[in-house]
Amino acid sequence: MSIEPADSMDLTAYVEAMAKLLELPIPNEIKPGVVANVEHIFAIAQPVLTFPLPDTVESAATFEP
C-alpha cells in the first residue's frame, strides 16, 4: 500500500471528496480548519506509514487486545 505524502496532495479536494463519499456536509466556514486538521493527521501518520518492513513480515489475521 502506498500513501502519498500530504505535501503533494490537494487536501482541500481530498476533504471535499471524502465528505461527499461519506455524505458528510462540511460548512464552508469550518472547511479550512478541517483541511488543516487532515494535513496535521497526515503529517503525524507519515513516519508510521513509511516505516520500512522486511518482506518476511506477515500481517496479523486478527487483532486481539
Feature tags:
65 residues; 2 helices; 46% helix
Please provide a written account of the structure.
The chain has 65 residues and is mainly alpha-helical. Helices cover 46% and strands 0% of the residues. The protein has helices spanning 11-21, 31-49. The longest helix is centred in the middle third of the chain and has 19 residues, at 31-49.
How would you characterize the largest beta sheet?
none
Return the structural class: mainly alpha
pLDDT < 50 stretches: none
How many strand segments?
0
Overall pLDDT level: 87
Query: N-to-C terminal Cα separation, in Å?
Result: 24 Å
| SSE series | HH
Q: Please report which band the strand proportion falls in: under 5%, 5-15%, 15-25%, 25-35%, 35-45% or over 45%.
A: under 5%
Helix fraction, binned, reads 40-55%
Question: Helical segment tally?
Answer: 2
Question: Which word captures the global form?
Answer: elongated
